[in-house]
TrEMBL record:
Source species, domain of life: Bacteria
Compositional bias segments (type: Low complexity): 8-26
UniProt xrefs under Gene3D superfamilies: 1.50.10.10
Family annotation (Pfam families): GDE_N_bis (PF14742)
Listed name of the protein: Glycogen debranching protein
Organism phylogeny: Bacteria, Bacillati, Actinomycetota, Actinomycetes, Kitasatosporales
Span list, region Disordered: 1-39
The organism of origin for this protein: Streptomyces ortus
InterPro entries assigned: 6-hairpin_glycosidase_sf, 6hp_glycosidase-like_sf, GDE_N_bis
Coiled coil regions in record: none
Stretches assigned to the Putative glycogen debranching enzyme N-terminal domain: 65-236
Length: 694
């Protein structure tokens, strides 16, 4: 198969290598437009984002509270309470007896709440023992509870002041340093109120303050504390007249099953629990259809819908049930472009930086290729026939977009002029074609045979065109450029070649590489250039442009590490899969089991810890979902609910010892599985009629 030529590439003034760069300024693919946002997204690359790696971020979307370890909200940086992307309170400074308490501890109690401990000494002799213990509980829903406890041996009379203020700024303006000054306050009921042309905010206090000073935004109380006694003040902040925050993940309304892990390695349970809690904190309702839930990309920067990330996370969490996948698919189907033109069938999405050697990618293209894959695999996990048929027309439009975009060619190019043929895009397209064909056949729709023929022809060509032979055994090319030139760097994009998708009877779909090429890729991914010891680097350390903090040029991206673990395990390369898994598990422990979307790709050393990335979202949907995928991979669950079977392909090496997963969902019913220390798997609970496949 000849290499592509410029005549088959889109042309335009920005075509060719001169347009390649590292900018990740959001721009749109052809025919694309931003999907509706439930909360504003702060675009990377357009501002210098303030560091967030050390912040305590309470999340229960659309509510958000960002604090430093001092507990006081000073109005500096990102600090404050947010609702739907707007800062409703930026300043909340506590003074007791005319002094600020001394902060001694700050910690996350749950994804939506943080606890701050402080002390205050009132002794004239300056002794070391505190007289007052101060606890502040801060919640993402806009609640702050301040409790004063006396440790003194005498009654205390304590004047308490809380200074409040806000700028009512959007998060994007706060991140860019354009928030503006505090707005003037007015006394309102038992608290304060602020207003501007774009909104308002109200703080109410219980008990009501003894005094309120609008000019300083000050609330005052006088408390008497007996020895061992305690008094509390509860503040609530939010838009004027707003109802209490409705959190999606409350009890039965959550689309995610409350799964548990039981393992010889206690880190497994800690990771799964934290992952599910983070996923629940990032759940949003579609404003068009509130019964449909999807995941925001991450906090604090991306608290709205990001189509590709939402689909990727929904796919990785299928072991927790199909409700999240169904809600995400329905939400995105409503944004799909329809009508005439080359963009018809595309699910819109912004562009994403791809590193220094390639132009930004179109996440809309990625989401469009993921849509039929998620639908096909959700059906295997137990999505009902009625729900699948409802979503099938949108999947057909995605597949028709793919056929139109490829045309008479072999590969799928980027949808903007001068775009290259990326390795990972071909992997996405090949998987979409095979799983999409499987889906069409299951419902008697036409087009499956054509998709399989194209996928077969592309696979044959890919093994020649995209494989670079060298003395080290070869590697996949990152991309082909106009004129047939090759981008040869080794990066994590090759991971997607192992992520082939799930077909019937527990079988993985065939991939784009042959067996020898797959073995070589496994060796490369497991080698020291890519495996940092904390997870998979996004670019090999020997490549030009390597940067351990580059989110596409060397940092560890948790999502792709999890895909590498799953793909390597499915292909039989358990040694490499286990090493990457253990690395991420160690990193998760260092991060309190709340994995950020990425961290520095620096080499792991004895006694060291992973270095945070200052701009990483934490929590992040794909990172939290990756925790679910990593543990599910150990058990190798491969359901085929339409055929009434579930196949188990566990990791035989049992890198975490014995492990059991309970409370999963297959066929809409509880599912539990256990893998012994010998790597033998057994189903402990399953839906009636579900049989163990060969």
């Amino acid at each position: 198969m000849p290499l592509p030529t410029p005549s088959s590439m889109p042309s335009g003034p920005n075509s060719g290598p001169s347009s390649f760069g590292s900018s990740d300024r959001p721009s749109m693919g052809r025919g694309a437009a931003l999907a509706p946002q439930t909360a504003p997204v702060v675009p990377r690359g357009t501002v210098s984002l303030p560091p967030a790696h050390a912040a305590l971020i309470c999340v229960a979307l659309p509510g958000l509270a960002i604090s430093t370890d001092q507990g006081q909200l000073t109005g500096h940086g990102l600090e404050g309470f947010y609702r739907s992307g707007r800062r409703v309170l930026s300043r909340c400074r506590l003074r007791v007896a005319g002094r600020e308490p001394l902060a001694v501890q700050a910690r996350m109690v749950a994804p939506d709440q943080a606890r701050f401990a402080a002390v205050l000494s009132l002794r004239a002799d300056g002794g070391p023992d505190p007289d007052v213990l101060v606890e502040r509980m801060r919640y993402a829903d806009g609640t702050e509870r301040i409790t004063l406890r006396s440790a003194a041996d005498r009654p205390l009379r304590l004047p308490v002041e809380v200074a409040l203020g806000t700028d009512l700024a959007e998060l994007g303006a706060v991140a860019a340093g354009r928030a503006g000054p505090d707005l003037p306050a007015s006394v309102h009921d038992s608290g304060m109120r602020w207003s501007c042309a774009t909104g308002d905010s109200v703080v109410t206090a219980d008990p009501p303050p003894a005094d309120a000073l609008a000019s300083a935004g000050l609330l005052r109380w006088e408390f008497e504390l007996l020895p061992g006694g305690a008094r509390s003040v509860e503040l609530r902040v939010g838009p004027a007249g707003a109802r209490p925050l409705r959190v999606v993940a409350r009890g039965a309304t959550s689309p995610l099953a409350p799964a548990r892990a039981d393992s010889d390695d206690p880190r497994a349970e800690a990771l799964l629990r934290a992952s599910i809690e983070d996923l629940q904190a990032l759940l949003l309702r579609d404003p068009v259809q509130p019964s449909d839930a999807h995941l925001a990309a991450g906090a604090p920067w991306r608290c709205g819908m990001a189509p590709a990330e939402a689909l990727a996370a929904a796919r990785m969490t299928l072991p927790l049930g199909t409700r999240l996948a169904a809600g995400t698919l329905r939400t995105l189907a409503r944004t799909q472009l329809v009508g005439a033109g080359p963009g018809s069938g595309l699910i819109p999405g912004p562009r994403r930086q791809a590193g220094a050697q390639l132009p930004p990618t179109c996440t809309g293209q990625e989401a469009t290729l993921l849509f039929p894959v998620v639908l096909a695999e959700a059906r295997r996990w137990g999505l009902s026939g009625a729900e699948t048929e409802e979503l099938l027309p949108a999947a057909e439009r995605c597949l028709q977009w793919l056929r139109t975009a490829v045309g008479d060619g072999t590969y799928l190019a980027d949808p903007h002029p001068g775009g290259p043929w990326r390795c990972e895009t071909q992997a996405h397209a090949h998987r979409a074609a095979l799983l999409g064909a499987d889906l069409l056949d299951a419902y008697g729709r036409e087009g499956g045979a054509e998709l399989r023929r194209w996928a077969g022809a592309m696979s044959t060509a890919f093994r020649q065109d995209f494989w670079i032979e060298d003395r080290g055994g070869g590697r996949p090319a990152a991309a082909l450029l106009p004129g047939g030139r090759i981008v040869p760097y080794l990066g994590s994009g090759g991971v997607h070649l192992l992520d082939t998708g799930l077909l019937g009877a527990g079988a993985a779909a065939p991939g784009l590489l042959d067996q020898a090429q797959t073995e070589q890729l496994a060796r490369l991914l497991g080698g020291p250039a890519m495996d940092s010891g904390w997870g998979l680097r996004s670019l090999g350390v020997k490549e030009t442009g390597y940067n351990p903090f580059g989110h596409r040029s060397g940092a560890v991206r948790v999502h792709e590490t999890a895909l590498a673990v799953a793909g390597l395990a499915a292909a039989g390369y358990e040694k490499e899969a286990s090493a990457l898994l253990l690395g991420v598990l160690a990193a998760a422990e260092a991060f309190g089991h709340r994995l950020p979307e990425m961290y520095a790709g620096e080499r792991r050393t004895e006694g060291g810890s992973p270095v945070p990335h200052p701009a990483a979202c934490r929590p992040a949907a794909t990172a939290a979902a990756a925790g679910v995928l990593l543990l599910a991979t150990l058990t190798g669950i491969r359901p085929d609910v339409p055929a009434g079977t579930v196949t188990l392909r566990p990791v035989r090496g049992a890198p975490l010892g014995e492990i059991g997963l309970t409370g999963l969902r297959v066929a809409g019913a509880p599912f539990s599985v256990r893998v012994s220390r010998l790597g033998l798997a057994m189903v402990e609970e399953a839906a009636d009629g579900l049989q163990l496949g060969a």
